[in-house]
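Would you mind writing out a protein's amino acid sequence and the numbers that encode its backbone to help me picture the idea?
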Amino acid sequence: MTYRAEIIFVFILVPFSAGIFVFYPIESTKLNFVLLSFSISIFILLFVINCLYLSLKVYHYRYSVGILFTVFFFVLGGLHCEQYKDLQDSRHFKRKPATFLQVKVAEEPVPGSRMLKFRVKVLKAYFKQRRNVVTGSLLVILHTDNPSFASVKYGDIFIIPASYTTVEPPFNPAGFDYKSWLASHNIYHQISLLPRHLVPGGENQGNRLIRFSLDLRQEQVDFYRSLIKDNDAFAVATALLLGYRTDLGAELLSAYSKTGTIHALSVSGMHVGIIYLLLEWILRFLNRRKLWRVLKVILTLGLIWFYTLLTGCSASVLRSAIMLSVIIFARLVNKTTSNYNVLAFSACCLLWYDPFLLWDVGFQLSFLSVFGLVWIQPKLQQLLAFKFNWPQKLWDLTALSLAAQIMTFPFSMYYFHQFPLYFIISNLFITLPMVMLMYLGIVILLFRFAWLALFFEKLIVFMNQGLDYIAHLPYSGLNGIWINKIELVLLYLIILSLILGISRKNKSMLYFSLLSLLALEMQLIDDSIRASRQQKIILFSLQRNYAVAFISSRHAVVVTGLSITDKAFNFAIRPALDQLKINDITCIPAKKDTSCNGVVISNHQLTYKNFRVLLADTAFNKKRIRNKPVFDAVWIQDTPEIRLSELYQDVRFNTIWVDATNKNYAVKNYQLDAGKINRTIVILGKNKASLIDLNRILLN
């Protein structure tokens, strides 16, 4: 019982987070009343049981009471999740007619390429002469030639047009699901505006403390900008110390990602821990008296939480700040704390503040990483022991990196589809420079020691160049890894059961890990067989371009106007091909006669196996086709002056493909024509991609 009392928050966290997980996808306003009634009933029952504990001899039924507690926190998690959903609130702005909306900027705007993105809280909806108080969040995309548009700040009040739209799901397979990501932040609608659409609607209403911290951070960012000339070094410095990631370039992010050190660019527990160690060293003179120790705790916690606020309050920083707060208080009152309990307590606090954090990748990886450090690292450290100090320290750092990587690599592969093979080398390489950079950066900011900036910049450049060199080493990482949810679960079952089996010498756990490994192997073999037998055509949805992939086994010929190095290709097309385990990709244009891996383009006709496509472009203007050929599909490009009803008299076809190279007015005409001749039309550009499984067609 003592052991259970020490990890009480673990027993609370598991059912509470399970309740959030189960009820998150359920959309029903009736659930609130049901869950509220159920939770109140269980709470009253538990209260009565506690009052009559001895008279009813409840200690004989402790397992039943434990189950009741578990059900209570499960229902409480579901209730909290349902109540947190803005979309189910009767006052949500989408439920009120509106011509204009009064909004408050709820976060620091993030500059992008010729745009500014920021979240706003909707306060009021104006319609005719009525004004309704409403709730809900809205994503604003402000198009401007000046991404650092200074007229928008946290807390500002604006009146904007109510021309918002629902966030669209991903159009192409395996694309980033921006809609789900925004939904996990309670955002379901977005609006595109120009600067002239923002009409000031009142005084700044942002939280003064948050506004002060953001202004202070911007002041420090500007100070770094005046000292550091190298752009990449400046970007790393502001990200490392201040959590300001706006200036991080794609190549820099790629180098850190490929080497498994991307965590260095996100202010996390390690950064907070370094700050804590510095404060401990500076304030060590306050350990002499008890009253002074109380003052030390107040100063330490105040500075840690101020730094947390200054760096944007990410899940990893909040987790570390809560954990450190509990540990510092425990030391003050001479109480020992379980690391598992402290970790679970911080997770409970964060999920109570925002239950949707359960779907935040940073939250997941942060807690898994710390769990690995708490559970796995001590076991790894015991494997090797050295007589000399430096080899032991090197092994301790290696065990630290291994423990964090073991617990996070399945999720990393699931989300980012890559695995850095040199992560131990790269993490060891940056450990000392990062600690030095943290302390140097803090000294420069606090005391304005500009003369240290040159060494500070050179150290960052050295670290960046070293990581870039490691990232470009042969076999530096595995890319294009796609695992499904079943494989993700199996990976964690293997890891957990294997570690438990070895540490506790439990044969049952070892057998279970082998069984899970066998199940994973069978799943991977099944994936491989499916990939080797696939025969598919994918019509991708692109803006102002076209792409159709003809897939046979692990080979793909993409008929497209893009090159394989284009950003649009890597964003919209490559993820789908990687997911299908394609390892050979060839791009060819539609307007050139060619033959490649079974795809033949000749005289405006495309043939792939027994599938025939007529390529209809402006060459067909005012022309007729003889002999009534038969095609499976007509692919319309570049707005040809044709009527499908007339074309159907000359050509037999089943489906019409209309890509984004056609003008909007023509697309509407094609759609009307397709309805008249009762043919299926696939309109790409702003609609979901289309998949044709040739294996099913051949079977039929």
Notes: Residues 213 and 219 are 10 Å apart (CA to CA). The first helix runs from residue 2 to 6. The chain is about 50% helix and 15% strand. The mean pLDDT is 89.
